[in-house]
Amino acid sequence: MKSLLLGLAIATAVGACATTTSPTGRTQRVGAVSQQQLDQMGAQAFAEYKAKLPQSRNAGQTAYVRCVVNTITRELPAGAHTQWEVALFTNESPNAFALPGGKVGVYTGIFDVARNQDQLAAVIAHEIGHVIAHHHDERVTRQLGAQAGLGIIGALVGSQYGANAAQATQQLGGAAVQAAFLLPNNRAQEGEADVVGQRLMARAGFDPRQAVNLWQNMIAASSGSRAPEWLSTHPDPQSRINELRARAGDLMPTYQQARAAGRTPDCG
């Protein structure tokens, strides 16, 4: 880890950042590290998860998640990873994440709110949307600039923070991983991941309208003792649902074309 962070700090000192345009037209500042370095960081963070967090022994649920991930990632742009590694972690939190390098982690608690394959696809496509929209690159670039290379891994995993972070941080330990849990995605990135994810699930043959149902389930779950942390990244969850509903209507032709072309997922 020390050698990786040193290399990243050096890369920041000698490299020049660049700007690009996000899927929603927002200007992003990226390029503090190479894609190869991002992939390495994602792989290392994922290895830490697998080493410290218990993985589910439910073969059926694991195969179910892997089927949804594989169906979605087949629709990624050329050059994206073709083989994504999937891990199902035993944890009651209704969360999931995706990392550069082709890594997807899902907590078993997600099944409480994602009650069919289309709703699970909405979750996973949203998380993969963060990867393909270069949000990790953007956050690493911003964090390196602000903190001179400290807490790099913290820029990689933003979906776990707040109340659920405390328990997970105790399990994982380490300052870098603690930062990873405490750093949320910002609202602009969350909105973009909604856009990218809903488009992606429709192209894969999953019903984009089910993203609305997923978030309704999320809101319902927030009234209990295990509130989904994602809700805190948007100023108004109902506005988010309204946006997903409107976009779902626009994406119905894409979904119908995918189904007509034989993309009819049957993950269970």
TrEMBL record:
InterPro entries (UniProt xref): Mito/Outer_Membr_Metalloprot (IPR051156), Peptidase_M48 (IPR001915)
Pfam families (alphabetical): Peptidase_M48
Signal peptide coordinates: 1-18
Domain Peptidase M48 span(s) in chain numbering: 61-247
Note on how the cofactor is bound: Binds 1 zinc ion per subunit.
Alphabetical UniProt keywords: Hydrolase, Metal-binding, Metalloprotease, Protease, Signal, Zinc
Top-rank taxon: Bacteria
Cofactor: Zn(2+)
UniProt xrefs under Gene3D superfamilies: Metalloproteases ('zincins'), catalytic domain
UniProt keyword annotation of Hydrolase present: yes
Keyword hit for Aminoacyl-tRNA synthetase: no
Entry similarity comment: Belongs to the peptidase M48 family.
Protein name: M48 family metallopeptidase
Species this protein is from: Novilysobacter erysipheiresistens
